[in-house]
Structure formats: structure tokens, C-alpha cells
Amino acid sequence: MSETTPSKPSPAVGRRDSRGRPVVAVTGLGIVTSLGQGKAANWEALTAGRSGIHAIERFPTQGLRTTIGGTVDFLFDGPFTAPQLSEKLAMLAAEEAVGQSGIGQPGDFPGELFMAVPPVEMEWPQKQELAASLDGEVDYRGLLSAAASQRFKAMHEMFLFGTVADHVADAFGTKGSPISLSTACSSGATAIQMGVEAIRRGETKAALCIGTDGSIHAEALIRFSLLSALSTQNDPPEAAAKPFSKNRDGFVMGEGAGALVLEDYDHALARGATILGIVAGCGERGDGFHRTRSSPDGKPAILAMQDALADAGLSPDDVDYINAHGTSTPENDKMEAMSCAAVFGERMARLPMSSNKSMIGHTLTAAGAVEAVISFLTIAHGRIPPTINYVTPDPAIALDVVPNVARDAKVRTVLSNSFGFGGQNTSLVLTAEPTRS
Q1: Residue 192 to residues 31, 48, 62, 305, 345: CA-CA distances in angstroms?
Q2: Out of 68-72, 184-188, 385-389, 421-425, which region has the weakest mean confidence (pLDDT)?
Q3: Do 409 and 297 touch, CB atoms closer than 8 A?
Q4: Which of 167, 234, 298, 312 could bond 280 through an S-S bridge, CB–CB 3.0 to 4.6 Å?
Q5: Which among 208, 203, 190, 214 is positioned nearest to 99, based on CA atoms?
Q6: Which helix (H) or strand (E) element contains residue 417?
């Protein structure tokens, strides 16, 4: 991956930022999506404007309103569960990120793990297997007892909230207790924020931050359909996700994982690491407006972006590109466009802002981490991935969405947005390597 040369000083100059805190460097990146495994495969597909969304073949979809998704189908030959896939995706992304960073020895990562995982639970096949094992009436107490029995011990452990992180921590030898978190669709960005804060506080010199999600299954499709959140434009699948277009009708579920190795800048420099970029600022705001809907005035999203910029010591004029949350739902896209306009003013009409979800779908818990990886690739290569399927502009959203075709551009600073159900809003400011003092 090529490096970019900063055109102007960063607020994170040398080894301390503008607030005197350790600068948080990125030394490793890993990614898996429906477009493929690894940075090279994903970058080639993203900049070619190629979609990874397709008809679902993993399970029967007859009778479902939505029959498409960005499923990752190249990792398992036989049946598997959502936690198993989420773990596999996380392992692959982490292997790539840790391998690129060259940090520590294999199985001895010198830092902590912060991991965003989906709120998984037993799916119907496992519930049916449990129910069939009971004698007499099937009730909740009996199911719990069966799940904890020796026969189903392995299956029960698989669905515990923290098990995926435990397995990843064991595999990579991370230090301390692994942190599992779930803040809806902002989870991946929150994992990065937690790693940044731990390094700034001096609690660790390195952090492995991962967002993973392999939870496309029939129940998930039904649940999101009941919320009227999913696109039902199933044919052709690759045209369904159309962020910021007038005829958008919902998001498309995707699977994937993103992993980042974060380090104290001094620590990375001392061991001769290649610094890929800086996590310069983080902003997080929540609201209790609704369990699923965004606050219509956009206030939490606006404040999250403003907080991230302030945390980085930057102004809106310093941002070269926005990696949009851009889900393709009517309400979210409108809210995000309005919120960005409030932060960036008239400049929004010409500030590039595109959505990776038009090609990989909404990777939910993983999205913030996956899109942070893509943002750093954008900085490194000086090329902005497009928003594909942008055929019918929405006159109420006057944005430069980098329509349909990738664009060469000098990108030094990216604002990456992740806005989740339940009012979880996280923004990250990601920059090129700072000028050294």
C-alpha cells in the first residue's frame, strides 16, 4: 500500500497531539467483505464500482420480502451459525492487520483487544434441536436447562455474548480482559474509539480493534423487514442499495469484518513500524429519541461530527472527504445529509461524500471498522470509492456523492460516520501520517 505525503501540518504533529496526548497511529489494517478477503481484493472491487450483493443461497428465502444480501459465502463449505461466521471473519481480518503491522510475536500481541460483535442468539435450527431434546412440555426453563447441559455445552458457549472475543484474544495473545461491545450500527467505530482512548490514557501501547458481523439469516431478514428497514428491490440484487438516490427504499444486509492495529506513535516509531495513518479524533453522542429511528433534527449526529473534529483539533474546512453512513434508507440518508450540511455549511455541495454500503451492503456491527479500513485505503491511494446505483438524484439531498465512478483526489483527512439504531452516533477523524517534529 502506498503512502501519502501530507500537504500541510496536522494537529497531531510529532509525538503528541494538540492536547498533549499520545498520537494514535495505525500500523495494520485487515478486511473481509462480500467483495472478497483482504485489502487488495476489496480495494480493487470498490474502486471498480463492483457490488458484492447477490441473491441469498445459504438458506431458503421463499416467502421473504427481501431475498438478497452481501453474504460472505467463500469461507465455509458446510452449515455454520452466525457466531461461527462472525468469529471466522474477525480472525481473518485480524490476521491481515496484525501481519501487516509486524507487531510482537505470533500469538503474543502486546496490547488489548476491543471488539464489536453482533448481539447473537440461538437461531431456529438450534432452538428446534434443544426443544426436541426435552421430555414433556417445552418451556423456557426447560430450554435453559438443556442449553446448559453437557450435551449442548459447546453450542451454548457459542452463543454467549463474549465468546467470540475470548477466542480471538486466545488466538492472538492480547493482554488484559478482551472487551466485547455492541452499540448497534456504530459498534465498529466505538471499538476503535475505545482503543484510541486506552492508548491516550497510557493504559496500553497498542490495541487490536475489530468489528465483525456474520449474522445474515432468515430470522434477521424477517426482523428488519418488520421494521420496514430493508430494501425489497431484489432484482437485480446489485442495484438494490442506492444511498442518497430518490428511489432508495431501505438497506441491504451485509457481512464482513474490519480490523485495525492501533499504537502509541512513539511505540510504533521505536520499533520501525510503517505508519499507515492516524486516528486523530473521535466523537460519540447518543439520544433516546426512538429504539430504531434517528432524531429527526439530526442533533446527535451533528454533535458527534463536531466533537470528532474538535477532538482532532481540526475545523470542517480541513476535511477532504466524508465516508458516509449512507444506509440507503429514506430517513437515515436525509438525516445524514441535513446533519452534514449543518456542520459543513455551503461547502457540502462540493465536498465528496460517498457510501461504501452501495457495494458491500450494511455490515451492521462491523460497519464502523470496515469503513475505517476503507477510509485509510482512500487516503493511501488518493482515490475515492463511488456511490454506485446513483441514477435518480434526490432533489432534497444536494450532495456530491461521487456517483457511480471512483474519483482520483488528494485525500488527507476523512470523516467517517457511523449512526446506529437506538441513537448511537459515532464519528471518526482519520488522517495521513503527521509531519514529524
Answers
A1: 14, 28, 39, 15, 28
A2: 421-425
A3: no
A4: 312
A5: 208
A6: strand 413-420
Mean pLDDT of 290-312: 86
All three cell numbers of 375: 477510509
> pLDDT of 318-340, one tens digit each?
999 999 999 999 999 999 999 99
**What is the percentage of the chain residues whose pLDDT exceeds 90?**
73
Cell of 314: 481540526
CA 185, CA 182: separation in Å to the nearest integer?
8
Q: What percent of the chain has pLDDT over 70?
A: 89
pLDDT digits (tens, 9 = 90+) for 358-368: 999 999 999 99
Which helix (H) or strand (E) is 92 found in, with range?
A: helix 82-101
Cα separation, 319 vs 325, in Å, equals 16
DSSP 171-220: HHT-SSPPEEE-BTBTHHHHHHHHHHHHHHTTS-SEEEEEEEE---SHHH
Scanning the structure block, which residue is given the C-alpha cell 492480547?
174
Measured distance between the N- and C-terminal CA atoms of the chain, rounded to whole angstroms: 24
pTM over 0.85: yes
Q: Which three cell numbers stand for residue 162?
A: 463474549
Domains belonging to the chain, first-starting first, are 24-121+159-431 (3.40.47.10)
Contacts of 202 by beta carbon, 8 Å cutoff, 6+ apart:
22
Per-residue exposure over 316-343, b if at least 16 CB sit within 10 Å of its own CB, e if not: bebbbbbbbbbbbbeebbbbbbbbbbbb
DSSP state at residue 346: G
In angstroms, rounded to a whole number, what is the distance separating the alpha carbons of residues 30 and 376?
A: 11
Q: Which three cell numbers stand for residue 40?
A: 487488495
Question: Residue 26 is which amino acid?
Answer: V
Q: What is the largest CA-CA distance in the chain?
A: 74
Q: Does the structure show a pLDDT above 60 at 4?
A: no
Which tens digit of pLDDT belongs to each residue from 138-160? 777 777 777 666 666 665 565 55
| Residue 72 predicted with pLDDT over 90 | yes
Nearest to 278 by CA among 13, 10, 24: 24
Residue 430 forms beta bridges with which residues?
279, 414
- Tell me, what DSSP letter sits at residue 59? S
User: How many whole angstroms separate alpha carbon 427 and alpha carbon 92?
Assistant: 25
What is the number of residues in the chain?
Answer: 437
Catalytic residues: 185, 325, 362
Q: What is the pLDDT of residue 79?
A: 77
Pairwise CA distance, residues 305 & 115, whole Å: 22
**Residue 356 and residue 244 in contact, taking contact as beta carbons nearer than 8 Å:** no
Q: Place 424 in a pLDDT band, splitting at 50, 70 and 90.
A: confident
